[in-house]
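Key result, reporting period 2: structure in, sequence out.
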């Protein structure tokens, strides 16, 4: 059982709507990349059980959507992005406190198929990926905005597979939506984080992308420019050994140095 100084509580599964979170529950608000949901939900439940205190609420969505919501005035105390670009974007708009920023976690990307697929392993050379799709769609986060989609496109370009599949991409609003398309059998293959694949029993990993095929996957965390007084303790807890155990159990890794 986790003993924490302060932090996470009941999570919002749906993307955030400006003004809704604080209007409904008040208190601290965490904006977090969709891929963090299971790990943060576990920490939230343990914290609420152990302390019985009012807890922050969590809004999960694509990092791009969360950064833009903050830019539009959405209230939040902490922001955890799934890549450096969207944290840089928030910093460039003066939406975070730069001195509070640090890289919290790392991750890996994998190619998945439905659990009952005949595809069990796949080497991404030549036209292998296009052939395996057999006219179906490759499910990915939006390749221009969603971090998992951007990492996936970069890896496919590095491996020489992008050109053959670029017209067969089903682009989802976040990585969990991409995962769901494959889990439901609506797409024969998809690219998600290793942590997402670990959480979904209806899919199997058929290829693990080498870390050198894309830029390092980093999850930076920071206080927002409007963070409340208690948010600093929350941010410190994110890097605690107790939190690290939970994150690693859910498939995350230490951030690249």
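The corresponding designed sequence is given below.
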């Amino acid at each position: 059982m986790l003993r924490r100084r302060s932090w996470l509580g009941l999570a919002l599964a749906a993307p955030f709507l400006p003004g809704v979170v604080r209007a409904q529950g008040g208190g601290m608000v965490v904006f977090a990349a969709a891929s963090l949901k299971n790990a943060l939900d576990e920490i939230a439940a343990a914290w609420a059980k152990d302390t019985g205190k009012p807890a922050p609420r969590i809004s999960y969505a694509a990092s791009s959507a969360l950064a833009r919501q903050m830019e539009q005035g959405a209230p939040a105390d902490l922001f955890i992005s799934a890549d450096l670009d969207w944290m840089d974007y928030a910093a460039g708009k003066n939406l975070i406190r730069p001195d509070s920023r640090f890289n919290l976690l790392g991750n890996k990307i994998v190619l998945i198929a439905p659990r009952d697929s005949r595809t069990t392993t796949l080497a991404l050379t030549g036209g292998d990926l296009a052939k395996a799709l057999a006219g179906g769609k490759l499910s990915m986060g939006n390749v221009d905005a969603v971090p998992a989609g951007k990492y996936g496109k970069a890896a496919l370009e590095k491996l020489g597979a992008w050109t053959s599949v670029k017209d067969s991409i089903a682009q989802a609003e976040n990585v969990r939506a991409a995962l769901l398309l494959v889990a439901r059998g609506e797409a024969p293959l998809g690219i998600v984080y290793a942590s997402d694949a670990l959480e979904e029993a209806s899919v199997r990993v058929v290829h693990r992308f080498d870390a050198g095929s894309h830029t390092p996957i980093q999850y930076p965390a920071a206080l927002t420019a409007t963070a409340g007084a208690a948010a600093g303790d929350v941010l410190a807890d994110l890097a605690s050994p107790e939190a690290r155990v939970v994150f690693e159990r859910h498939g995350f890794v230490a951030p690249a140095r």
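The chain has eleven helices and eleven strands. Residues 137 and 185 are 11 Å apart (CA to CA). This case is discussed further under Risks and Mitigation.
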